Amino acid sequence: MEYDETIILKNGGACRLRNGTEKDGALALANYILTHEQTDYLLTYPDENIMTGERESQFLKERAESADEIELLAEVEGVVVGLAGVSRVGTAEKVRRRAEFGISVDKNYWGLGIGRALTRACVASARRAGYAQLELAVVAENEAAIALYRSEGFVEYGRNPKGFYSRYSGWQELVLMRLELR
To answer: Contact 102/72 with Cβ under 8 angstroms?
Structure first.
């Protein structure tokens, strides 16, 4: 699935949203590690990362060639400042119409509209892929992300009070959200 769009940020700068490709492996991996160092709201810690630049390149190549999954990069002045993706929940008939959404943005670029643009790009990509529902899980303390997702039409459908166990703060409640696409 292909995606390529340039948006104007709140600070007047330009940001390109596009598919990650095989050649982007090292840059995408560096952004992944950075964003996972910057916040305790993401699934893993940097030291848990099992990807290498080569494996990330292969992952991006597979996503670029996929008809129903995508991994997007947000670039500002040639620097990867965010990642977002849509992944199928599964291939079994009962779940193949559902997809999951994940996103991370370099903290130095928060508040500029990149998260909203990546969210919208993933929603559009999920619709184009034919999914009926896009799902996500967000740490309940991450009020800014929850407000963003709500403003884009996602609704809460449940909570998991012991969704993540943080090294720093103990249990983190996860808010489960979904967006009907059709």
So the answer is: no
**Are the C-beta atoms of 133 and 180 separated by less than 8 Å?**
yes
Q: What is the pLDDT of residue 147?
A: 98
Q: Which domains does the chain have, with CATH numbers?
A: 4-180 (3.40.630.30)
Please identify which residue in the block is written with the tokens 């993401």.
42
Burial of 103 from C-beta contacts in 10 A (0-12 / 13-18 / 19+): buried
SS3 annotation, the chain = CCCEEEEECCCCCEEEEEECCHHHHHHHHHHHHHHHHHCCCCCCCHHHCCCCHHHHHHHHHHHHHCCCCEEEEEEECCEEEEEEEEEECCCCCCCCCEEEEEEEECHHHCCCCHHHHHHHHHHHHHHHHCCCEEEEEEECCCHHHHHHHHHCCCEEEEEEEEEEEECCCEEEEEEEEEEECC
Within 10 A of 107 (CB to CB), how many other CB atoms are there? 13
pLDDT digits (tens, 9 = 90+) for 4-28: 999 999 999 999 999 999 999 999 9
In the predicted model, what is the mean pLDDT of residues 135-162? 98
pLDDT digits (tens, 9 = 90+) for 74-104: 999 999 999 999 999 999 999 999 999 999 9
Average pLDDT over residues 63-79: 97
